[in-house]
Amino acid sequence: MTALIELAGITKVLKGQQQARTILGGVDLSVHAGESVAIVGRSGSGKSTLLSIIGLFDRPDEGSYLLGGQEISRLKERRAAKLRSSQFGFVFQRFFLLKHLTAAQNVSMALVNGQGWLPRRERRAQVMEALDQVGVAHLAKHRPPRLSGGEQQRVAIARALVRRPKVLLADEPTGALDTETGALVIDALLAATTRGCGLILVTHDRDHAARMGRTLDLVDGLLNERVYA
Ligand SMILES: Nc1ncnc2c1ncn2[C@@H]1O[C@H](COP(=O)(O)OP(=O)(O)OP(=O)(O)O)[C@@H](O)[C@H]1O
């Protein structure tokens, strides 16, 4: 089966004022539909840089990046932006919800921005389905200031899922949450994989990493498989 994501020999060098520094030194990674992968590594090891390349916010210096079998490492920005919004869902440590809109309206914004016109009833059904998928449908009419951090993050995950992305990229999504609430957020992310979404989670939390199908450690610019005892 063709991998959703296939990276081979991805490099990224930061050209500072004094000397260049290799952040990624030839990263290989493949992720299939429905698979979950954790990326761990010490602070500054390049995890977010790698996620930015996968999410097409940044470009590698060298290497090949196949998305669904298609080479996309050298795309022009306009085409990259299209793929970014149609193929990827993003979740960050901060929730970036609009305070004056309800949870449902926040999720709906992603549909309005991404898919062009949809009949109102259809849009509503998709929004409620996404909220339901992450267990917060009952909070649809609430505004973010009335929600807990974990609830807000689950609304943010619903917003990422509503366009039915092929890949979900989550960068420290539990970083601002306590352990118990963080576990619920991980449940919500894993729920997406049962529908065939690929999940790449960057985390410092060992327990959350261990819940993914695989854990990869980014060390000295390379990904190493980590086996938990
Ligand atoms: N735009 C930039 N300009 C200069 N240095 C950068 C830039 N982006 C990242 N870096 C440096 O590249 C290295 C990798 O950063 P990155 O954010 O990818 O690491 P990380 O593993 O995600 O770290 P953390 O776990 O702390 O979030 C760091 O040393 C960072 O300071």
TrEMBL record:
Keywords: ATP-binding, Nucleotide-binding, Transport
Pfam families: ABC_tran (PF00005)
MF GO annotations: ATP binding; ATP hydrolysis activity; transmembrane transporter activity
CDD domains: ABC_MJ0796_LolCDE_FtsE (cd03255)
A cellular-component GO term for this protein: membrane protein complex
Domain ABC transporter: 5-229
Protein name: Putative ABC transport system ATP-binding protein
Organism: Actinoplanes digitatis
Lineage per the UniProt record: Bacteria, Bacillati, Actinomycetota, Actinomycetes, Micromonosporales
